[in-house]
Amino acid sequence: MDNLGNLLDGFANVVTPMNLLIALLGVTIGTAVGVLPGIGPAMTVALLLPVTYGMEPTQAFIMFAGIFYGGMYGGSTTSILLNTPGESSSVVTAIEGNKMAKAGRAAQALATAAIGSFVAGTIATLLLVLVTPPVVQFAISLGAPDYFALMLLSFVAVTAVLGASRVRGFASLLIGLVIGVVGIDQTGQQRLTFGIPQLADGIDVVVVAVGIFAVGEALWIAAHLRRRAAEVIPVGRPWMGKQDWKRSWKPWLRGTAYGFPFGALPAGGAEIPTFLSYTTERKLTKHPEEFGRGAIEGVAGPEAANNASAAGTLVPMLAIGIPTNATAAVMLAAFQQYGIQPGPLLFERESALVWTLIASLFVGNLLLLVLNLPLAPAWARLLRIPRPYLYAGILFFASMGAYAVNAQPFDLFLLLTLGLLGFGMRRFGLPILPLIVGVILGPRAELQGRRALQLSGGELHGLLGGWVSWTIYAVVLVVLLWPVLGRFVVRGVRERLVTR
């Protein structure tokens, strides 16, 4: 009952005229950037971090939440109309969605994506309300060794699970950890400052996020610009017939069931549940002949999984302070920008902020449905914006935002350096998320590790703690050794088959 009362208080804060306007602005910007290929919600939140300095924390996070959900919605438009996913989580939507569009059913594909996202987002946000408080109570019982183990698990998960290469993942994490330790440590010693006074306070997370995401992506896209305009499939106002509704509602629910738990897992993300949802719908469908040619179930299920995972990522971020995807990592940086530390004490110290943020997810979800159904043709026209104008604007706002952090020209030099680093990482296939997680969680992992060792008098067994840390270390060991173990298991199965 306390949670319900807190949520109602959150709604009371959200439904003020100014906060509703900010929520509308957030979902509109989020949808717009989600529609444009190569510009995701993580880059947009990173760009807007400096812009929100003058806003109250509550209003800033209402806007960020709208961008987060809106980016998930908008990615489906690009996938369906252009066969170019704006986000990696929208890749599966393109498989059947673009086929439907080419068959003259773009309106139905966009409608099932929008309504499915609304259904999944609403259910997943309800689950967020129910699940997060128990997770907070569990997190309060954890000690320094347990938190250190959790952060180690996050490092291993985002490097060993995501991406095609573990080596590249660990290389990206190492770069992030190096950036994170720049400055003065807890003993007062300078690290990696090279005698530059501006580096004594460390590199601001905002500058890192804007440089790696916005500048790096803009330079990468500029290096691969196509001069011809994108060929967009025309679309009318989205609508669904009776048969479309009948074939969509079960995939919406199944997609939600896949998306939420995977979003809450370290490195779970939206990619795995969207693929699982697509596979499930392909097996359960009564119209197998349509798959590969434009089956509506292949759009409804993955889009629901995509949006449900977005709500799931907020559980570990709010309750434990651990991000599970790039956008959550940048939002975590936003909390730090306001001097707020996500974790188990967040619900006590900033209760009004948290519950207003959660309530804004419900409001933003409804606003997105209202925006997406009538305005789909307008979003489609955004795809015709010339890329040079678009990315020149991104570079301009990125530079202004980075300069606004500390009003130091040195930050512009850092921004360009980090942008070139982001460009190089994309060129050589290094994932971005491990770097951002390393920058944000690296100093916190060092802090918890120091505390654990101090409590044990410098003995390494102080890092082990209780059953929670032992369990986490076991999971880490399995994740690290899985390729070797998997090879032996596959070889053993093959040998048994041969002997039979």
General description of the model:
With 500 residues, the protein is an all-alpha fold. The protein is 73% helix and 1% strand. It has 20 helices and two strands. It has helices spanning 2-14, 17-35, 41-48, 57-82, 91-102, 106-140, 144-160, 166-180, 205-223, 242-264, 271-284, 297-312, 314-319, 326-337, 346-349, 351-382, 387-406, 409-427, 433-455, 467-499, and strands spanning 183-184, 190-191. Strands 1-2 form a two-stranded antiparallel sheet. A hairpin with a 5-residue loop joins strand 1 and strand 2. Helix 5 (91-102) packs antiparallel against helix 12 (297-312), helix 6 (106-140) packs parallel to helix 12 and helix 10 runs antiparallel to helix 11. The longest helix is centred in the N-terminal third of the chain and has 35 residues, at 106-140. The N and C termini lie far apart (61 Å).
Question: In a few lines, what is going on in this structure?
Answer:
Helices cover 73% and strands 1% of the residues. It has 500 residues and is mainly α. A hairpin with a 5-residue loop joins β1 and β2.
